[in-house]
Amino acid sequence: MLTVLHTLANSVGLFNKNSATSAATAANPSQTINKALQNLHLVRKIILSQNLEESQEQLLGQISVSALASLSYDQLQDLANALIATITTSTKELTHILTQLRSSTAVEKTIITTTTTRTTSKTVTGDDDNVSITSSEGPSSTVTVVDENDHLSLSVQSVLSLGIQTETNGLQLTSGNLAVEHVAYSLSDLVFVYPSTSSQSYLGHASEQWSKAGVANATGAVLAPQVLKMSTRANAASAILGAVTSQEAKNSSLSALASSAAIVNMIPNLYQIAQSSTPIVFHVAAESVDADLNVLRGDYSDVLVARETGLLYLTSNSVQEAYDVSILAHAIASSTSQSIIHILDGVQTSQQVEAIKTVKDQDVAAFIKHERNKSVLVQDEDSLVTAIEGIFDRAATLLDRRYKAFEYTGPENAETVVVVLGPANSVAKNLGDKVGVLNIRLYRPWSFSHFLKAIPSTAKKVIVVEPVANAVAHGPIFLDVSASFNLWTGAKRPTVINAKYGLHGSSLSQGWLKALVHQAIGSQGKLDLATVVAEADQLQEEVKQVIFWETTASASVSAHVARHFHSALGHRVQHSSSVNSFRHTAVIETRLQFSKSQAVEFVNSALGDYAFVQDVSVLAEYNIVDSLRSGAVLLLNAPWSVEELETKTSAAFRHALGAKQIQVLLIDFANVTKQFGLSGAGETLLGQITFLKTHSSNLREAAFDAIEHQYETSNSKLFKDLILNLVEQVDKEVIEVPQNPNWLAITLEEADQAALALPKHVQPTVRAIANAFDGSLASTAADVQVVEEGEVALGKISSWHKAAWQLMFSQAYDTKHTLSDEDHSYLVSVSENRRLTPTTYDRNVFHLEFDTTGTGLRYEIGDALGIHGWNDTQEVLDFIEFYGEKPDTVVLVPRAVPKNAPEGTQARHQTNTFLQILQQTLDLFGRPSKRFYADLIPYATNSSEKERLAYLISPEGAEEFKARVDETLTHADVLREFPSAHPSTPQLINMLPPIKPRHYSIASSQKAHPNSVHLLVVAVEWTAPISAKARFGQCTRYLTSLGVGAKVTVSIKSSVMKLPTSPHQPVIMAGLGTGMAPFRAFIQERAWQKSQGIEVGPMVLYFGSRNRSNEYLYGEELEAYHADGLLTHLRLAFSRDQREKVYIQQKMAEDGTLLHKYLLDSKLNGHFYLCGPTWPAGDVKDAIVQSFMDGESCAVVDANRIVNKLKEEERYVLEVY
Ligand SMILES: Cc1cc2nc3c(=O)[nH]c(=O)nc-3n(C[C@H](O)[C@H](O)[C@H](O)COP(=O)(O)OP(=O)(O)OC[C@H]3O[C@@H](n4cnc5c(N)ncnc54)[C@H](O)[C@@H]3O)c2cc1C
Asked: Are 697 and 571 in contact (CB under 8 A)?
């Protein structure tokens, strides 16, 4: 059997490092790897306790983990000391130290790391001209599994790719954006990218990667096309104008990948570009934003604003069309020397993934060349349209589809014709017997004659469907259509009706359009749009669909499933996602429609027959049931029993379940991932398997094969076993919730109305923008990172306007809301903050509880919680006033590129106010390094200040510098002391280091408290020796000030403090003060085990503090556990409660026989732990050594050796800080 499993290093991989099980035997490589992690942790800890210099921190980051794995405990301490000893240690010296340390011990294993990369690669087939681009936008991860025989048996690589690739059946699964980019990139020498707004990875994003990777284009360019990323600002496209007018560019192939917002800003330049007769193609991902900053689906109004500039307009309405029309646009541009706008739906098509038929790049290039040589001269609009239709015709063989300027579908004798442009086309299906649809493919130039030719002569009513912002105005298409009918030669001029969507809450759907046509047929030209909206839902046709509610961390199950439907069953699939990134974890709603029939039409607003909810926190934010049809299946990933479902969900939710007879399934993914040690790609695998097991499609068997194929494995047998095990486990874990008749009987109160009114869909928008300005965003510690084209790596003053723009167009700017620098941060809220020591006592030790409900935060026994603390607001404001700056000045700050980021990752920028950045991010009140003094020197305008700064960091000033450190002067103090050294605000921001998170041992067991995490903290305060000023620890001051409900950003750090594998093994714990924290977690865990009927071994606790009346932390709980017998020995040492001081080591010395027995009796194999301040470590060890000397009748040197052996076996563990 497969004994899993490990990973190391980066967090995304199939197996989770935290799960490296201590059940493994000594020979198990997982132990070696686990040890490497622990060692790394230990060295960091030892060093961190010394107030590490930044340079040392960096050095530590460079030590290879594999080197650390082979070091013994003492060697690790030597290493830590070596690091501490010298601030000037260079990497070279450090490597030398490491080599020396390692020379005494053989490195037994190579540590295998899990890597995660974003790949974009090129495949060159045949000769050099024959280049096909293979792109994979998604993450790929390589995972290594080791079996119990210690052989490296399986290496698995998974690449999730939705880019254009060669598929065996000739079809290729790709998104609209990638299809367009593929064509634009392969046919251009120079590509301008103006990031789009509605897509997660904007149009142009992949091209940037391809260019960076040196992928050549299909026109034979030796070098990769140049891809220039531009910002969207007033008078955009100046660069394009420059390029089109330059002599050089005359012979280049140009394209632009842009958003509609960019087009609006380009208008003045577009007139000139149109006149320049340059064959440039603007591929535009269209979207519009309403007054509430919602991105509107199917609204091309923005991009149509440029319709009078003289550019040609082509539209595409699906991924296939986007690909085809891109090719046509380039062919037309080459042939006619006209500039063209090709519009695709930036909200739907851009992100939709479909299998499309593609043409070899070199065939496309040859076609374009052919058309260029045929270049046409046009006199008027009609002849231009005729010439374009000629190109459409010639391309028909290449593309296997024939396009026209106006494409009519429907009966020849239609009496009603619906005219659509863009997205309306995708819902204009099955509208009625005598109803036809006319799709506008070529909108500019508008040819009256071609339009009229396309309309059946029997037409009596022509309905023009277009988005219109207000009820009074007519849309531009209506005006063109009406004008055309002035030239109508048929019997009776048809009535032209303007059907406007976006009004009366209408949105584009098949039901809406059907209701509209229905009404229009009976009307005299006037429509009652409100009634149309009311009827829309009933007329909506049913289409099979699965809805996934995923979070960013996991959002690939749907994409994998889409791939299985396509590749395993040959289904036609459509995958379209909406992302709400203005949430602390983004939520992604993905609609996956699939059908056996290739001819089926997908409908955007269909109801789902299965919903997969990866994160149940979305239940409180979205009305998920509303978009499901009756009898649908709803799978919830939650650690809930059937009973808990009743208590954890709203009455409105359960009522809706009853009303629609929804079949609810529950599964706790975390439980399975924990058992199997899965993470990252492994979680995705589990998600896929669960879907396949629970969805009633005929996909199952075929898809399991598909899963296997999707991963390249070095040992398929082993991998199959893993899948089988997972399938079995999923079978066991899924709970079918029986229909509860009481659900329907629930009477909904007024309070439930809010739940009913929750949004049904994720608006791909930035609704939360208001929060960004009303301060609530700030209060959640969330900040905004922004990528800016060409930003220099220097903080700089920005404006609210700009910040607003960036927030508004989050995806365009790749804006992300993150909680902190650490990827795995969670936003939790304080549910208890209780002082444990009397207020009359000078030390404030307090107990904190955070509510983690819905955050997905999971921790193991012994883990520490990282707290991202803020600086004191008043002190920051005082400083800002002194500095002569305003708190609300907006600053853009570059963020460090994470160490493990893929090569070429650009620095991100963060938009904050000056107050926010000093309060939440920068360590203004931290200890200034010598470097900070040195950096200040050039700014000092006063010569004596300049001299003094230089003196302080010179060897002569060393003593004084040390005194200043002892005085605990801060960056702010130094800036106040040297007022003439006044860097500008951006420069200052650059000079200050970030606030480091502080770690706290978790004082609870998640078994006992599934939705909370507890800490035991002592407030750090001291008095500066010279000035006698009161000083406060940065993080503990923040924590003391938190009230119930306050939001705090936290992260999890794993630790060496693990309970023994067997619950029977004795546990000996020695804690001083807050060192009690992890032991409370230990005790809770064993108490939980006991409550489950598991027999647990002895627990001995040595607890020490100053006195019982003030500092007997958790005294009552401990007494209760002791009385219960769980805590078999409770030994207390209150040093100041008697004349002679008593410490824990003395209590331990009294228990020599017990310690010896529990630790050295091979049947018991007890573990010893010490936690808290460093100082008792030596005396505590002496007590244990003495007990061994007595028990074993051995010499001190032998007893020490035994202790060292215990350390190596991780049975003697210290966590000191
Ligand atoms: C694994 C681990 C577990 C921990 N568990 C707990 C726990 O359970 N409970 C608990 O209370 N603590 C715990 N700690 C300690 C905790 O992480 C913090 O170190 C502690 O709370 C102090 O943080 P602070 O930000 O309040 O103080 P800081 O601001 O970091 O100050 C700490 C010390 O740094 C020095 N210092 C600060 N500013 C300056 C300056 N300008 N110049 C020179 N010196 C300066 C001073 O000596 C000061 O006392 C743990 C630490 C680790 C590593």
From this structure: no
Q: What gap in Å lies between CA 306 and CA 808, rounded to an integer?
A: 22
Could you tell me the two tokens for 101?
């340390």
User: Which residues, in sequence order, are CB contacts of 854 under 8 Å at separation 6+?
Assistant: 615, 616, 617, 620
Structure tokens at 702: 């075929």
Strands 190-193 and 254-259: parallel
pLDDT tens per residue across span 155-190:
333 333 323 443 333 566 678 888 899 899 888 888
Count of C-beta atoms within a 10 Å radius of residue 746: 19
Among the listed residues 305, 237, 247, 246, the one whose alpha carbon sits nearest the alpha carbon of residue 270: 237
Given a contact cutoff of 8 angstroms between Cβ atoms, the answer to whether 211 and 351 are in contact is no
- Of 1189, 1177, 24, give the one whose Cα is nearest residue 1168: 1177
Ligand 1 centre from 54 Cα, in Å?
Answer: 16
Q: Where are the alpha helices (DSSP H) in 246-378?
A: 260-275, 301-304, 319-336, 361-373
DSSP string over 30-93: HHHHHHHHHHHHHHHHHHHTT---HHHHHHHHHS-HHHHHT--HHHHHHHHHHHHH-SS--HHH
Asked whether the beta carbons of 199 and 177 are under 8 A apart, the reply is yes
CA distances 785 to 489, 772, 821, Å, are 60, 13, 10
Ligand 1 centroid from CA 854, angstroms: 30
What the block records as the tokens of 655 is 């009522």
CB 467 within 8 A of CB 296: yes
Instruction: Kindly give the number of the ligand 1 atom that is closest to the alpha carbon of 1215.
Output: 1
In 10 A of CB 487, how many CB atoms? 10
Structure tokens of 283?
Answer: 């591929």
Contact 1140, 1106 (CB under 8 A): no
pLDDT in tens, 912-938: 778 888 998 899 999 999 989 999 998
8 Å CB contact between 587 and 621:
yes
Q: 3-state DSSP call for residue 942?
A: coil
Biggest CA pair distance of the chain: 118
Q: Whose CA is nearest to atom 14 of ligand 1?
A: 1000
DSSP 401: S
In the reported structure, the alpha carbon of residue 1000 is separated from the centroid of ligand 1 by a whole-number distance in angstroms of 10
SS3 track for 551-588: EHHHCCHHHHHHHHHHHHHCCEEEEEEEEECCCCCCEE
The DSSP secondary structure of 327-362, one letter per residue, reads HHHHHHHHHH---EEEEEETTTTTT-EEEEE---HH
Q: How far apart are the CA of 925 and the centre of ligand 1, in A?
A: 13
User: Looking at the chain, how many residues does it have?
Assistant: 1217
Q: Is the separation of the CB atoms in 234 and 316 below 8 Å?
A: no
Q: Which residues line ligand 1 (CB under 6 A)?
A: 45, 48, 51, 864, 926-927, 965, 968-970, 998-1001, 1016-1018, 1020, 1022, 1033-1036, 1074, 1077, 1215, 1217
The DSSP bridge pattern shows strands 152-159 and 711-713 to be antiparallel
Q: How confident is the model at residue 512 (pLDDT cuts 50, 70, 90)?
A: confident
Over pLDDT 90: what percentage of the chain?
38
Q: Please give the Cα distance from 407 to 393 (Å, whole number).
A: 13
Nearest Cα neighbor of 183 from 346, 7, 358, 40 is 358
